[in-house]
């Protein structure tokens, strides 16, 4: 191997790398802005004498059209399309059904599921598809996104090591081995790896990742949660307690078949026990705000709003079954779909002088009225420490009354167009789910997966086929598609690509590799393998994992042959270790989850540092045990 000397151009690239790391860690500016600034600086430096080959300015912005970046854009749109149909809400409900509402059970289910999925599709695709699922689980359980997205993202990366098609380096590995064989004597020829040759390594790494966050998550994961403001649509329990002092919650009860209340109305039960019946379910059909004059037919389930002690008393007194948590109504009353809002009766409203019963409020507006705030007084069916219960359904409306309602966001959107109300709550989801489009969404998702797994088309083209198909079939419109893309993520990744190319084309990467090899000269075989793994880990943080693999596999094979080691194992060590990308958010998955969870670079250093060491220990141990 020819000796590589450090040139002025390499020194500049090393300086840029150091400058980038300082910007990322210090967060003097936003990380995406830092990446853009480095890309611009790289282009300007290439205009100086002696640095002309640092970057090709005519291709400086080609990262925005790279296969990886376009793939991320497409998979975000596909994920938004699946979410638009309500499919992701059902997946979230299924996870909560088996995982409950605790972090210790939810996180392993999410992380394990993403890990398995990412073994057959690009890890950023698996992470992007589960991002809306985790978001909905967060608002339904109250668990901060920051406690769930990092375990999910790390396991998506780890899942790429489960099969030979799970990550780009492993896909390339067999081709690189065949190329290396041409220069090796017959006795040292390497065999290629089968689809599931690396599965034990991947399983071990995913299990390690899950156990790591289960055991140490309470200390290494951030706990900050963004709070909404006074005009935001919020969850019912939090809102009523903070604003009106109403200590209530939603409970689910079952009225058994043949119960004596059959034939009575919901209003009869409401008046008797001073609770709200805000939902009903009968023969598989649910009603969000049933008319209170509806007669009870058994067996049925009811969603009841009230104080816990009063609901428990009602269940015991009447012989109803009180469930531990929402089941049938879990999705209907999730904060992603409904919540508490405030509307004001303006002067000139046709409702003045009428009461809720007169206008059949629930049937007309699709919402349940929980309280009337009038001056300094709050009227509610649920008693507070200051006020006795009031039959608010019979209270005539006055101009200026603020009605506290429990409504779906879709129904609240309609109220914003009704002149009889002024909707005070402004920050709430105004989207309409399109369940009728679920067939189209699943169809084009399946087409994209088929193209990825069974054709040689570029990944970006496969995914864009699915994304464009969803737009053309109106699963979501083009504006919603644009809104689904995290452009900060796109520019972060696109801006780092030229720097990675400069590290490789300038010879900086080869020079660094040479220095490491000189340092490792004469070491035992096992330590050489560790050194190769560490080098691959470092390289994948500063350049693409594909570039690191292409550069290091030939070097690793040469080292193994010279030291008497197994060249195939050394090559596989490189391909596996290029997935060890947890320290800084340069990996596509880490960049994807950084914004929604509000992570800082220091969060990745804190959590990813230990994960990096665990990855090296577990992967090398299993790899040598197998091969």
From TrEMBL:
One MF annotation (Gene Ontology) recorded for this entry: monoatomic cation transmembrane transporter activity
PROSITE patterns per the UniProt record, alphabetical: RCK_C
Domain RCK C-terminal: from-to ranges: 328-421
Subcellular location: Membrane
Domain of life per record: Bacteria
SUPFAM superfamilies: TrkA C-terminal domain-like (SSF116726)
GO CC, one annotated term: plasma membrane
Entry keyword annotation includes Transmembrane: yes
GO biological process: potassium ion transport
InterPro entries linked: Cit_transptr-like_dom, DASS-Related_Transporters, RCK_C, RCK_C_sf
Gene3D superfamilies membership: Regulator of K+ conductance, C-terminal domain
Membrane spanning stretches: 6-26, 33-52, 64-82, 149-173, 193-216, 438-454, 483-503, 523-543, 550-576, 604-626
Membrane topology, record value: Multi-pass membrane protein
Predominant location category: membrane
Official protein name in the record: SLC13 family permease
